[in-house]
């Protein structure tokens, strides 16, 4: 199946949260929480560049929040023409060149990454937080925030937040030895009444395209209070189960039902999604690592199961999760 490029993967799955323990922590915390609120509720529109693996992509984003919820639309400025549209919890990725539209009804994360959550107040010990200097990004004043890990199981981040509106203007993702994994930076941006909401309208009519579900089917969430059927026996320090859902699929009433489970582990800043899928009898799958932009993935087959771990974390973290997954 065609993927929605490294940019989509990097933009759809990451949420940030963290904790602070030193004298500057309240100040950094305030900036991160302000950014979290602004990225969800502010109206903004602009063009940004995303650099990864020696490639540069440019996209234009329009984000509007009103009584009906949040709506976002991304359209490519360089490379193959594509549109990414999010309306609350539904995500559509349209490829006009081959008349394909990928749909995910469960992709609730906003498209611009690095959004902290209330976990900021509850987790600690995995990162060091520092308030950096002021800088100019896209012609606007921005405050730098530096978030560095204490071990090899996670990446570090540098964030530049708009001083007036709190929206993220620039981010740098770093791995071991300070090597840059990916960069995202707005080159121009506008806010509030200056946003042209007409840019929310898709260029292409969905009726013209073949719809293909993205990844694991959405299915039904696990019942409230129902425990997961799988868990990581020894996750990396700081990672805890943040959510899970069960999915069952059947071609017809007589076909064997394929069972899926989706687990999400988070350390409060980084998150890892783990998918467990039963394979049809006699079918095998290729194991190993893949990388899409800043997003890494690791797959392995165990008997008739395919286990896949995905996240904006080092490969060693994904392999530890997948290899140590056990059934309850």
Task: Explain how this protein is built.
The protein starts with a helix and ends with a strand. Helix content is 10%, strand content 46%. The protein folds into two domains: 5-212, outer membrane lipoprotein receptor (LolB), chain A (Clam), CATH 2.50.20.10; 216-327, MucB/RseB, C-terminal domain (Phosphorylase Kinase, domain 1, 2-Layer Sandwich). The chain is mostly beta strands and 328 residues long. It is built from three helices and 21 strands.
> CA-to-CA gap between the ends?
32 Å
Number of strands: 21
Structural class: mainly beta
SS summary, helix count: 3
* CATH class annotation of the largest domain: Mainly Beta
CATH architecture of the largest domain: Clam
Shape: globular
Q: Please list the strands of the largest sheet in the order they lie side by side.
A: 7-8-9-10-11-1-2-3-4-5-6-12
Defining key terms:
mainly beta; outer membrane lipoprotein receptor (LolB), chain A; Phosphorylase Kinase, domain 1; seven-stranded antiparallel β-sheet; 21 strands; disordered N terminus
List the helices and strands and how they pair.
Elements: H1 5-12, H2 25-41, E1 44-52, E2 55-66, E3 69-76, E4 83-87, E5 90-95, E6 100-104, E7 127-137, E8 140-149, E9 156-162, E10 168-174, E11 180-191, E12 210-213, E13 220-221, E14 230-232, E15 240-249, E16 258-266, E17 271-278, E18 288-292, E19 295-302, E20 305-311, H3 315-323, E21 325-327
Parallel strand pairs: 6-12
Antiparallel strand pairs: 1-2, 1-11, 2-3, 3-4, 4-5, 5-6, 7-8, 8-9, 9-10, 10-11, 13-15, 14-21, 15-16, 16-17, 17-20, 18-19, 19-20
């Amino acid at each position: 199946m065609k993927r929605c490029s490294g940019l989509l993967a990097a933009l759809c799955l990451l949420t940030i949260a963290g904790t602070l323990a030193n004298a500057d922590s309240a100040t950094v915390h305030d900036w991160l929480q302000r950014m979290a609120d602004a990225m969800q509720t502010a109206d903004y529109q602009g063009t940004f560049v995303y650099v990864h693996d020696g490639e540069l992509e440019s996209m234009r984003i329009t984000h509007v929040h009103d009584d009906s919820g949040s709506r976002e639309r991304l359209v490519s400025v360089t490379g193959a023409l594509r549109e990414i549209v999010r309306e609350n919890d539904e995500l559509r990725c349209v490829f006009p060149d081959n008349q394909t539209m990928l749909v995910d009804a469960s992709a609730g994360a906003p498209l611009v990454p690095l959004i902290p959550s209330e976990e900021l107040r509850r987790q600690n010990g995995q990162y060091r937080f520092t308030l950096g200097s002021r800088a100019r990004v896209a012609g606007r004043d921005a405050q730098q925030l530096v978030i560095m890990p204490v071990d090899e199981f996670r990446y570090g981040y540098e964030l530049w937040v708009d001083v007036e509106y709190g929206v993220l203007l620039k981010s740098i993702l770093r791995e071991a030895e300070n090597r840059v994994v990916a960069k995202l930076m707005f080159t121009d941006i506008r806010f509030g009444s200056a946003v042209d909401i007409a840019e929310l309208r898709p260029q292409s009519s969905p009726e013209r395209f073949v719809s293909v579900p993205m990844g694991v089917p959405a299915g039904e969430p696990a019942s409230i209070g129902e425990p997961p059927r799988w868990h990581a026996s020894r996750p990396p320090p700081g990672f805890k189960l943040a959510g899970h859902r069960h999915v069952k699929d059947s071609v017809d009433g007589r076909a064997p039902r394929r069972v899926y489970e989706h687990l999400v582990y988070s350390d409060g800043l980084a998150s890892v999604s783990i998918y467990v899928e039963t394979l049809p009898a006699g079918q095998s799958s290729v194991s190993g690592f893949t990388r899409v932009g800043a997003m890494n993935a690791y797959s392995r087959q165990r008997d008739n199961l395919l286990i896949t771990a995905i996240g904006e974390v080092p490969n060693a973290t994904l392999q530890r999760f997948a290899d140590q997954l056990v059934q309850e």
